[in-house]
Amino acid sequence: MSNITVAGTGYVGLVTGVCLAEVGHQVTCVDNNDEKINLLRQGISPIYEPGLDELIVKNTENGKLDFTTDYQSVYAHSDVIFIGVGTPENEDGSANLNYVFTVAKEIAESVEQDCLVVVKSTVPIGTNDRVEAYIKAHLKHNVKIEVASNPEFLAQGTAVRDTLYASRIVIGTESDEAKQILMDVYEPFKLPILAMNRRSAEMVKYASNDFLALKISFINDIANLCEKVGANIEDVTNGMSYDERIGNRFLNPGIGYGGSCFPKDTKALHWLAEEEGYILRTVKAAIDVNEKQKYALIKKARNDFPTFNEKKVAVLGLTFKPGTDDLREAPSIPNIRLLLNEGAHIQAFDPVGIENYKKLFPDQISYKHSIEEALEDAELCFIFTEWPEIKEMDLGLFKEKMKTPYIYDGRNCFSLYEIQNKGVNYHSIGRPSVIEYGVLDEVQA
Ligand code: UDX
């Protein structure tokens, strides 16, 4: 088994390192953040990811996994170094490669033996070539270095499973030797390995993410039209999904995609295409639809509440999706900003996202630790994330707890059948509204 180092202990780096140790490799994870490394050494993951802590503890105890800030000594004697650092978005939409090149510099200055550098971070097409040239130009010792591309397809909340049981492993190399090293590293996973050149591998990652983003924006577009023409998006997607060419996944309408990948990777590929003098019209459409979709719920609520000033607003769900405490590009954020700017009083519940939300909105929101408390006396309620606790909540609570039960559900958490006869006004995405508040009371009276 190879002696492997992973640079970066964010989602990609940490999960990669832990899973490589789990299949039997000797792995050291490197990060320049002391606090993170100290936590990891105690078996505590700095990110919320189901199943990760257990694997960290197990593999640290059995001596397969180690954490350090001392990159020099580990880079010096690694067979393979994975780069799994972040590539955030620049203001113009392009990918910021500062972290990648910082690690490349540290590698160049430290390696003392032949080594394969594997870029796992999502990087624009051609970056691997640049990283290789950069390292070679800055090497301190006379060693042989090659760079390979090995994009990552894990989703937050299911990252460990997505890595250990990945749909495929894509490796992009420019030599048979590099290809063989990566084939050996991944052999214990017993998964399909697709080998290609570096630029194709870099492109697989962007094309996959942008296609999924496009799928979501397409279905959001169709959902919005369903509302206008009296169709129900649930029946429509169900009807579409029986065609195997379409499938039944990533067709859930909502208030747009968030997270650390789709928003960034759509913009980065569009930007890159423009640099090449080509306009990626489909990707641009996905970006535009998503930007507008974020406000789909507010638009519906406006019909009932011309102003949110002084309104008591319940918010259920803050994170960009369930199963994570990550708030990057969470659609809840621009909505909450808008509500606060208009003078609304917000009572918010999220099972794991509150601590991170407090960093963004320390005092302006009243954070609640239960759905009941968030609904108490509220005049309207927005649902931004489909957490299981929200999907499975007692629907009688809306009428029982709220002052006026107006519900705007951005993730279609409840079936229309279930929400009927609950005495609420319920608006979701791409489905007919249920209007019972007031109406039902009159009938009953
Ligand atoms: C995504 C990709 O799934 C993963 O393969 C890639 O490596 C990284 O980006 P992630 O961002 O963690 O993973 O979450 P994902 O589950 O894909 O959801 C992204 C966003 O799309 C969320 O905001 C989610 O709510 C939204 N979404 C997803 C929809 O609106 N509808 C859907 O049908 C699916």
From TrEMBL:
* Database matches in SMART domains: UDPG_MGDP_dh_C
Pathway terms, separated by semicolons = Nucleotide-sugar biosynthesis; UDP-alpha-D-glucuronate biosynthesis; UDP-alpha-D-glucuronate from UDP-alpha-D-glucose: step 1/1
Annotated residues that bind substrate are located at K205, F250, L251, N252, P253, G254, G258, K321
- Name the SUPFAM superfamilies for this protein: 6-phosphogluconate dehydrogenase C-terminal domain-like (SSF48179), NAD(P)-binding Rossmann-fold domains (SSF51735), UDP-glucose/GDP-mannose dehydrogenase C-terminal domain (SSF52413)
Q: Which residues form the UDP-glucose/GDP-mannose dehydrogenase C-terminal domain?
A: 314-416
EC number(s) on file: 1.1.1.22
Provide this UniProt record's keywords sorted from A to Z.
NAD, Oxidoreductase
Q: Which residues bind NAD(+)?
A: D31, K36, T87, T122, K264, R328
Q: Where is the active site?
A: C261
Please report which protein family the annotation says this sequence is part of: Belongs to the UDP-glucose/GDP-mannose dehydrogenase family.
- Protein's name according to its UniProt entry: UDP-glucose 6-dehydrogenase
